[in-house]
Predict the 3D structure of the following.
Amino acid sequence: MQKELVIYYLKRHALILVWLLVAAGFVGYGYVFMTGAEAGKANQGGAFEEVKARREKISNPSNNIKIDPENIAKIQDEVNELDRLIIKAGTVISAGVEHEPMAGNDFTTHMVSVIKQLNKAAKEQRVGLPRDPGSKSDVQFPYYFTFFEVITKEHGVSEDKVPELQVQLEDVETIINILLRSRVQSIELIQRNPVTKEDVAANRPNDYLIERMKYTNSVAVVRPYRIKFRCLSGGIAKSLSGFAREDLFYVVRKFEVKQAGANSAASGGMGGEGGMGGEGGFGGAPGGGEEVGGEGGFGGGAALGGGGGAQAAAGTPSVPLASLEQLILENHAGLATPKAKNIMREKLLEVTVDLDVIRRLRPELPDGEAGADANINAPGPAPAPNLPAMAGTNNAAPPGTNAPATVPGTAPVTPQPKQ
């Protein structure tokens, strides 16, 4: 009877029992939540007190040295001026001429034409070039200027690779023409970054530069190149001046000069190894009959050049004069002049140059503007408002360079010589 009564009351008050259990669960959860909240509050209070202590230490240091608000303002001015300088620097760098990307077949035809012109110009200027292996195509050139794999590709160039190859071809053409105008004696190699999968897979280390790759920063696109050529000291000066006169920025990353080997095909010329005058230059006593010119140069009555300098004409023995005999002829008889002395010993030099060709990033066109060339001379980003005026910012080129100065919205001006 009692068991049935208990079951009866449980069924009658089942809903009340469920709510009692739910209430107990809420009470337990609330206790756990309040305990966690108190712990978090304590942690936050400790962190707040720690920050207050650090702030108090900065505001009232033990050594009584306080940060001057004026110094903070000056530092902020320096930061703002640096930001403005970075923005202004972008206006000095030329963006170059923007060309529409060519189709694959059109670019191949254009590339063959450029390579042919460069080989012809080098031949006319008597500038030595390295030799490339024979090509499978019908087009044969002594040197392909690193584009051997691209020209000899059977199925043409992939359309997505054409824009980068087009820029590289323009850079290589400009660099080679500068060297040809600088009267170098030979071009040993030129290297560029690989672009196509054929470039990457090619076993031609002299054509590709992989130590430094193309990169883009917030201002410009930088493409690296390496060139090696042989010339005399005048060729070095002319080549550097040629790079400085270009509208684009050419940054010399490395410049290595060493004496060229004696077995160079380009180390000949008038006077053997030393060129005109060679190591000896113009030397010897005029009319004295002795060897003139040392390793190369002009000798009295002798042929130009020669393997080891100019010798006296056949049948005329060389009779060197003693110093006393020379002195008597000079001072007493007046039949001779003092011996010429060599003042310069110049040999052929081998020059290796690592170049970076820098092009400014072209700003995007605002909404509503159109035109293929509208963004060529578009101004760069505007400086931040309320910045302090910066003295000496007249968009001039950096000191010590011949790079052209430009003004936003105008074409690059003609570079001015250094003062």
